[in-house]
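Appendix B. One record, verbatim.
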Amino acid sequence: MSYLSQSRVRSRSQTIVAIASFLLAMVPAAVAIDFGGALNWSQYVGSVVAASIASVLFIAVSVHGLPRFRVPVVFLVFALWNAYAWVQGTSFPVSIAERLSPGVANEFLDSLAPIEKGVAHAGLFVDQLPLSVDADSTFHAAALWSVAIVIAGVFLACSRMPSVVPAVLLSLSLSVSIVDFVSLLDSAFSISGWAREGSLGFGPFVNRHHAGLFTLFGLAATLGVAHWRYAKVNHRGEFSSGFSFEGLAESFRDSLFSYSIAAIVLQASALLACGSLVAVVGLVGSLLFVVNRGRYRKLIALVVVVGGLSVAIIGSIYASESSRQQAFSLVFRGAVVEDASQAEDQRWDHWYDAMRSAKAYLPFGAGTGAYAYAYLPYQSRSAEAWFHHADNLWIETIVDQGVIGGIFLVIAIVVVFLQLDRLNTEEAIAKGGKTAGLFAFGATVWTQTFDYGLVLFANLFAFSVLMSAVLSKSNFGFEADGSRSVRFSRMGCKVLAVVFLLVAIGASLNVLRDDAIVESEVRSAEALIGQAATDFAVLDRRIERIEQILTKDDSPALHRVACSLLQQRARFSEIEYLNPTNAEEAEQAISLTSKTGRRLRPLADASSAPKPSYQEFYRRAYAHAVQGAVDLPLDPDLLSKLVYLDFVEPDQVDSLALVSRLFQLQKRFPRQLLRLGQLAEQSVGIDSEQIAIKCYYMASLLQPPSVAEAIRFAARHPGVAVSEVVPANSLHLQYAVRFLLKTPVIRTQLGVSADDFFRMVAAELDCSSADSLLQQSACWRLRAKVLFELGETAEGLKSLMVARELSPVDASIYLEQIDEMVKAGMYLEATQVTTLALQVFPEDSRFEAWRHRLAAMSPLK
């Protein structure tokens, strides 16, 4: 081929590389429009599109021909790290799994012990276990990670293509600007339906912190464009650290520089409008990191900042609650974008549980992406919320991947830093790329200390594209010699790289496709369940389709919805079989076939059980619950279904043991605890009452209004004292007393137990712990009512006097005093209180009426 022909080929390949790089960097924004890429289908489609464009890019680079083949260290680190994630989802013999990950093996065995007979009866032999408590989520996370690494590998292979970095910076900057512009319009005018009242999201993102991180990546690219054009215009490709306003004014003549300034203003506005304090902290930290461009100064600053931040976080996690609240009141004083109390409750307390989980799953972790289930057995401080992530990506990494993950994390941070430091900045575009890389790196380190937005597909892909394009100019890596004597070796490296990329992308896309199908079926099934669909044909078709998919993909999520659909199908079939003829019978049939009602009757009872054909639906539902629990043993929903379906095979399920296990998994969820208390109460066993007491007590402790249900439970069980299910602190005691005073029937059922409880309240109620004088006053009034119920009038009046002193302008306290004094025949004292009240409330006719009544009742008259 002639030199001219080679030049034309290279020119065309350069154009293709630039276009492909530009389009590839647009993918994160395209995925972000669909809730930031939170859904499996958007992740799969985005991965397919990205892989297709990357293939074109790789071919164009191969045609262009590279004088040398470089294997960057960062690529090797992340590739090995990703390989470890794949290993975690792989099953090993139980003996090996117990040695490699004893924490995971123990959780599997503890959850499956109550249904051991059911598992054996179903022919499911648990002879292998994965190194993850949720293998499906681990494979999904590993697949997403692999796609990002493959795309990064393609960009890193483009180290000699001058058009890659400009195309990526411009594309990412432009696409993020478009998303931010639409998000700002939507927040102001609600034009797209994204903005919802009370929503914590911004634009298409359901979480404002995730939107903030996405904007930070766009801002990194925009700053890179601005630095590139400034250096290009003023120094013609050669970098100088000097700055002048004349040079800045000259730069505005460049259209790309002018665009970058406008984009910076737009993206900064979106960053502030999204309301994420985490993103603002990331912005400040990233700018400081970019400004301090000295190699060793940055390294020392990074070590000091990360070390100091780690010490502060760990110290705050284990500090007392009062100390943390004082610190938060100082840190968040005057903040308008975040609620300090919410941050205290939702992050710091949960991090304590996350640290406990990390320790329990050492050394190999609970499984990449499995955090949502992994932390459940180790809750002790978390608020009433299901934390699918730890709100700290670094702690979550230790929980998910253990010591190995922590080592990889430290190595990755150091390697990325060193590669950024060794970027060749002789050209203007390289200088802009380094600025973008430093900013994105700093944003990630800072924001992910308080969030987990990097796991979102749009953010993960944006970070991967930006950093890989920038680091392709780094000199930190292994490379093959360009001489003729090692040409075959260099070609062999290329072939191995192509094979690795194809295998990785093929396996990953296959996993993502299967997960997308599963998610689609689950969402469709949940819609039917939510609508309480009664069309048997529709239910049968959906069940049949799900069971067909399960023959190829044994997904716990599909087993869960298949069980729910079959329960629904069985229930409506049974109602049809019972054939109610009037409203009363229909109501009775609905009650008998409810989850709790159906559990109380044996399946084979000839008088009430459905026909054998309908019994089969219950048995199939039970089989799906067992299979799902074997695959995902920490799923509370699947374990709950086994409790509700224990009537199918009562000899194969230890219901009380399952309820105890569910208590361990849901002990920070009050509503679920009340349900577990009812299930324990209905179960047969010597420990049923004690387990129910434990559930009701914890529900009351977490949610004071729940003491009403706890007291009702005590009323149903004469041997249970009220004090056993109501926590002995002021707030809970007040809720309990108010409930008992309003429900005399319950108090009558409790009998002596209620009187004993009232005596305990009168002795132990601490009104001084209330937050305000009004609350203290209300507490003293409640204590007075308890004393009046016990017949201790004198002590009750003293309590009312204290309440009146704490709230002297509350007329109802005076009225209550007068009424109780009259009941006790203390007319003179009542007259004195009435006279005082008329002085305080001269226009209140109620006291004037009491004055006349007391004058008529006075014995001196």
